[in-house]
Every structure is written in structure tokens, then in C-alpha cells.
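Q: Start with the shorter request: fold the first protein.
A: Done. Sequence, then structure:
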Amino acid sequence: MSDPLLRLQDPRPVKRRGKPSVPVGRQLVEAGLISTSTLLNALELQRYIDAPLGEILVAEGHVSRSDVLSALAIQHDTDRIDLERDPPAPAMAAALPAALCQAFGAVPWRWLGGTLLVATTRPDRMEALRAALPATAPKILTVIADADLINVQIGRLYGAELAHRALSRVPEHLSCRSWSPLATLGVFGVVGILGIATLSIALVPTWVATFLILCGLITLLMTTSLKAAALLTQITHRIPTNTEPLHDLRMQRLPRVSVLVPLFHEERIAQALIKRLSRLTYPKALLEVVLVLEAKDSITHATLKETTLPQWMRVIEVPDDGTITTKPRALNYALDFCHGSIIGVWDAEDAPETDQIEKVVARFGQAAPDVACVQGILDYYNCTQNWLSRCFSIEYATWWRLVLPGVERLNLVLPLGGTTLFFRRDILEELGGWDAHNVTEDADLGLRLV
């Protein structure tokens, strides 16, 4: 590309040397940004990490993302652009399907005659993008841009389409969006039931109270019986997956893991969250923590503006399309922006063990291919604060360590928790993700996994 109108002021610390095929690592060494030993260590790490060399160097803190982008532009003999200063026009949304933009981490930027300029951080994947397009598609040329800004522009160009898809990922017959008392019973049915209930309370209040108490007692008896059976099963039988040693991950190629952290009206949680998650020992080049927040959530926006996020943590904004605002909708929207083959969910107040991701990856490695989910055990970290926190801790300990394992061994439906759970991405997508219209999306997903 030689058109000077396409070139912005070059912020690159690495100078062009007339060798567009020079690898990124060698460029960074020649520019004095990393040492040869650092490069060799990163190449050795790449043997066990399914990630580009530049991402490894950035995640390990050896170079900035800007340095790597500049080197990529030189290696592939293309231009580096700033999508914040020079974003694509809204009409560019028609140039590429939203699904392909998300899948390949790219966004259409400009037309140059009959050629489409596509911004990406992964120029090595552009041949696969071209292959995914129809034969009549225009010629594509690559320009280099920051990945976070690419995601921002994908949201800006395709936000309405993606938000609508997040609402309806789950098939209608499995979703709460198609349920309505009026649709199920009809107007006369609903009015009739309310009329009978009102008349019964007025004429025989004692019998109504007795009936409701009996219903409560029967429900309590059923849940107590279930918990007792699960507890007895767990005590009298050994569950191998809880005690078998984990696989050694040091000699195998590790997968990329994406963890979604939904945020809403968070004022002080950001710094504490970053501090807790920074203790994780899984390779940061393979860890993608996605903070998911609503576009209209000004409180959390203000908090994050004052916060410097690490390179492996980023923000996805869910557009306000005038419909519902629920956690499962936000998770569905963010899912397609993730790159991991394992998808996890944490709450903002979670404090995961430092090796939690390694344990999850090892469990999936031991499990059969049809095992879709790994649910973590939850505990209170302020269990000694007061009497109430001790009671909560006891309840959590019995539920997660005794009752739920027993329910699993009884081959009953396992109600998932809303946090510290991890999915195989392909199975999660096959299920349609979360039901955006169900406020108990975790329990619902547990049912659909059966």
C-alpha cells in the first residue's frame, strides 16, 4: 500500500528496514525492546501455549501492545491505524457479516476502489476470513488496529443486531420469552382462577390457610428428603473426580480460557477485583477476563475510567436497545466476543484460588468429551466475621461439598450456581447460551444440559 492518504502519523518505535517479512520477535530484539533471552523464553513458552508470540510478550509484561502492533504492521507490510481517531463509517456494516467480524476479530474500515480494507490484530487469520466469504466477495486488504478498539467498532456497527441475537439465542420452545399466563390459560382462565381464589379466601379462609400450610409442609418434606438422600449417597460412596490427582499441565498445550464478569452499578469493586484476579497463575497470554457492563451503566463506567486494566482484561459494553436488562442477556452478548475454548463466569466479588483455572483445565482434560460444565465449590471468605457469616458458611459448605455431589451421584438434575462455573464453548453455543428472559439462568442452563 503506497497511498499516502491512508497513512496516519506513524507511532511505531520500530523503524521499517525494508524487510516486511521480518518476524515480530526479531524486530523487537533489533529495536532493543526485548533481549534475546526474553525472546527465547517466550518461544519456549509458546510450545505449550496456543497464542501468538506477540500476545505472550505483552501478557508477560515485556513489551507494550503498541510495540507489537507496530511490528505486526511491518512484518505484513501493511498500515497501522487508530480506530478511535478514524473509525469506520456506519455504512461499512454492510461490507462484512457481524458473525465473521466476531469470529476473526476484524472490522471493515474503508473502501479503496473495489478493495475492502479490514482492520485486525491477527493478519495471519485473514486468509481464513477470505475463504469464509462467498466467491463474489470483494478483494480484502489488511490494516492493523488495536483489538479492544476493534471490538468497540464491532459493537458500534452491529450493536443492534448483536443485542437482538443475545435476546433470542435459546430456541423459543426452551425460553421463557414465549411464556405468558394469558397465552397459556387465556384471559378467561386467569380471571377464573383469580375469582375462585378470592371467593375461597372470603368464604372458607380456614380451609385455604390449611391447604397452603399443607402445601408448604409437603414441599419442605420433599426438599428435605432429597437433601437427605443426596447427603447419605455422598457419605457412603466415594466420588472419584474429587480425589483423583490432576493431570500435569506442564507438558501439554494449554487452551485459551475466557471468563465473563458481569458488572452492574459497581462503585468500588474494580480495584479489588483486579488485585484478586492478578494472583491467578494460569498463563496470562491464554487468560481473557471480560468485564461485561451495560452501556447505560454510568456508575460502573465512571469507576472503570479511573482504573488501569491489565492487558489480559478488557471491557465489553452491552447496547441499550430498549428491551430487558438481565445478566443472561449480557452474557449472551459478550460470548461471541470471547476467544476461549473454555468459557467461565465469575461474579465481581469473587476471589478465586490462584490455581483455579489450572484445576478447571485439568478437570476438562480428565473428563469425557460430553462433559459440558465444571462447577466450582463456593465459600465465604469472611466466614469468621460474625455469627451470621458463620451460618452462611456452614450452609454453603454442606450444599457444595455434600448435597450437590450427592445429587450428581444420584443422576438427578444438577442446579448450577451463578458463578465459578466453566463450560466447553462448543456445547454452550450448541445449547444457545443463556436464556435472556430467565432470571434463574443458571438453574435453567443446568436443566438444559441434562
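Q: Next, the second protein, separately.
A: Sequence, then structure:
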Amino acid sequence: MTILDGKKVSNDIKDEIADHVQAMVAKGEKVPHLAAILVGSDGASMTYVNAKVKACQRIGFNSTLIELPDYTSEEELLEKINELNTSKDIDGFIVQLPLPDQIDEQKVLMAIDPDKDVDGFHPTNVGRMALDLPTFLPATPYGIMELLERYQIETSGKNVVVLGRSHIVGRPMSILMSQKRKAGDATVTVVHSRSKNLEEITKAADIIVAAIGISEFLTGDMVKEDVVIIDVGITRVPDATKKNGYRLAGDVHFESVSQKASYITPVPGGVGPMTIAMLLKNTLLARERHIK
């Protein structure tokens, strides 16, 4: 069993981007500039956004963090988005989700300029992805594809099961893995809360992408020998033995599934670090497009 070390691979990618940025500086070019809008004080969101800012500092990007109070109106947020859309200094930006109840997330995502949508959530970019056209890929699926490629995991003709049908992970993964690409050419099945004979489907899978949002949902008796496991989930599970009172768990029961898996991502340290690395890669792509 091999651990798919997202932390190591993400650091490799950051080093590659940092080298690219140094070459840009040597040519006198403007370095990429990533902005993030954070509305409110959700703990997980703050941690994630701060990690993005630190990653920008490490590789030589410029970064801007815009923090807005949780009572910010939808109109105020849309005005801020418009400022970033029209700013020549900002190459790409994200609006950290989730947003407070008074703000329509879909309206916000639609307001972002597709050419600066480095999260890859705008319908224009999702449509381009579905048509296999050059675009910003959603960061988490992009990171998973990169992990599969860098570990040279064979996907062509393989039976892939995606647990979950979210717009952020499940559906994009099903599209990408069925396309003609390096980590593609697979036969993909998407399962969800209404799927019947779930265990029968997962037991036939060569590769499983677990993004169902239920901690330790996938167990060892639901998979076959030598399966490849990509665990996208991350949940705080109460644990009295831990100093902070909880432990982090994925959508996969690691102890039982790892006994059968040929490759498996850990939680934390698997998919999570890859998401940030691919966000940076999208921002570099945005800067290069703007130069052209």
C-alpha cells in the first residue's frame, strides 16, 4: 500500500511555480496577483484563506486578502467583486465559501469575471471544462488529477466510482476522468444518497473518489483488493483523547480500507494541500493569459 502524499506533491508544484515566478521577475514581468474575499469569521474558512496567503508569499506571488464582516450585504459584496473584475492589478480571485445566509452564492459566483475565476466555478469555465477546452479547472478535481498523474496510476479503461455529485468535486471529477487525457479514459459511475446497491458498485471499482461528505462512510468491506482510494472528505470528529477534543477524519475509514488499497490518500495531507497548489497554478495561468 502506497500513501498518495499530497503534501509532498503540492510542495513540488509550489517549487516549480516559484522557479517560474523567478524567471518572470528576471524578465521584468509583473508577478501573479491573487486576491481572496472572506465574508465573516468562519474558523475553517479563515484557516484555509490564511494558508492560501502563506502559499502566495512562499512562491513569490502578490496576494490581497479582503475581509468583510458577516453582516455584509449581497450588494456590497457584488460591488467588491466588480472592483476586482475591473482591476488591472489582480490576475485572479476567489470568494471563500460558504457565505452568510443573506447572500446568494450562485449570484456571487456568476458575478466573477470568468477570466479571473481561478476557482473554476463560473458556468463559462465549467462549460469549457465539459467541452475539453482550455480553461481553469476546479482546484480540488485538478489536484486529484495531478496526484494520479504524478504517481503514474493507470486510469485508462479502469472502473472509477465517484461518491458524491457536488458541483465542486463529484461532477467535475466524473467529467475529467472520462475525457481523453493522461489521468482519464476511464469508465465512470457517479453514486449518491439515492443510489441503490451501493456496496455492489463500490466493490467493482478500481478507483474510488470519495466526496460524499459523511465521515468514514466508505469501509473496508465495501472495496476490493488493490483499489485506489482518493479521499476528499474532511470532518472534525469528537475525540476525548486529543488535546483539542477532536480528530480529522475523511469520508473513508482509513484503518479498514487501507488494508486492501494499493494507493490511498491520507486525511489530512492528501487532497487538501493539492487544492491550494492548483489554485496557485490557475493564478499563474491567469497571469500568463493576461500577458498575452
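Q: Describe the second briefly.
A: The radius of gyration is 19 Å. The longest helix spans residues 6-26.
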